[in-house]
Amino acid sequence: MVETKYSQKDIFKMIMILAIPAIVENFFQTILGFVDTYFVSQIGINEVTAVGVTNAILAIYLAIFMSVGVSTNVYIAKYIGSNQIEKAGKVAKQSILLSVIIGLLFGIITFLFAEPLLKLMGIEKTVLDQGVIYFKIVAIPSVLISLMFGLSSILRGTKDTKTPMKVTIFINIINIILDYVFIFGFWLIPSFGLAGAAWATVIARLVGVILLIFYVKKSKIGNVLNLTKWSWDKEQQKELIKLGTPAMAERLAMRIGQVIYFGFIVQLGTNTFAAHQITGNIEVFSYMIGYGFATAATTLIGEVLGSRQYELAKKIAYYSTFLGVGVMSIFGLFLFVFGEWTASFFTNDIFVIQQITIALKIDAFIQPILAIVLILTGAFQGAENSKYPFYLTTIGIWLLRTVGVYVLGIWLGMGIAGIWIAIGLDNLFRAILLFLKIHNNKWVRSTELTV
């Protein structure tokens, strides 16, 4: 296959066209999530805790649903890149089918085990009762969450990141409006409290699924996507699961590792733990940037590797990382200069503000390293190699970060500074090895890679 010639400017433009909508989508969803939490906080602290605990369990669900999305994105981009539109449509149908089955499965699990799952979190009886109500309403129809990820990934695989962005913004606005109406009541509609917040979320997701189905049918593969005839393709499902499982395992490894080292941080005191949590909430905005560029890298690399343009794939990986490092470094500079000012929005406690400021100043230097990790992980996924990032995440989180938090934070008495230095070392470890793997041309799942 002859390499398609693109200038550096062309590649930058392709990346930005895909990355910016993904970043905006993530940003808008996070901002509206804060508003959502604010409404629930007006009901009471038990309700806020119930939502928080439920979301911690849902994070595991999401890791599995997102893994299907990763596979879908990669394979559709690959087949479109090799001009196999029929195959891309086949992947889309199998992805939708898999999303429905997994979503229904987790809905049944929620219906049967909602209370036992919440009890595992060690919450009090007053919170448990509220949590079960909220959890059942939002998670029994898990098929809606699963389809949201699957359908959005189909569109991203066709290089359309704008439509998922628009749909996400629209349904989140609906969610906020319905939150207010259902939680507090309006005109003839009575107040439903926390249950109202849950129903608002479910209705918004239902609207999202309907809109996404409509846009998928209008997409590049819409003409070959017959949604009336369904059959299970064992081989295609095997491919989707094979690529998606390491991506899922990576996210689960991250979550489980967090639980372990969070236990060490708690030993440093409630104020230090609170400072760490607030710092993490602020850092979420940098993840939105990184994931945006990672989405662009996954889609574009999947597409160009479909036509075996290996050198171009490598350039996309490098340029995506370069752009992401630049933007996230600017964000890091903001954290370093305005960290104390930002912390003051979350608490009035002087000690906690000081702790957050220390953490943010260290995190400022981690930002370019984190950009490399997030974006190159997306590049590996686009190259159908999701195992290597999983191995690095498992070693980095469970060994370097967890041990580092204990040794630096507790044993050497460095407190929150030690915690964030350990986080930085974990990310540095993964960034170096991911970069070296690409540099040495050992990152694409293909025996034909010779460049």
Strand-helix topology:
Layout: H1 8-41, H2 45-81, H3 85-119, H4 125-139, H5 142-157, H6 162-184, H7 194-217, H8 234-266, H9 270-306, H10 310-343, H11 350-382, H12 387-411, H13 415-439
Helix pairs in contact: 1-6, 1-9, 1-10, 2-3, 2-4, 2-5, 2-8, 2-9, 3-4, 3-5, 4-7, 5-7, 6-7, 8-12, 9-10, 9-11, 10-11, 11-13, 12-13
Number of helices: 13
Task: Summarize the biggest pleated sheet.
Answer: none
Structural class: mainly alpha
Write down the overall geometry: globular
Distance between the termini: 13 Å
Percent of residues in helices: over 70%
Averaged pLDDT: 84
> What count of structural domains?
2
Total strand count, please?
Answer: 0
User: What is the CA-atom radius of gyration, in angstroms?
Assistant: 22 Å
Pfam families: MatE
GO cellular component, one term: plasma membrane
Membrane topology: Multi-pass membrane protein
Protein name: Probable multidrug resistance protein NorM
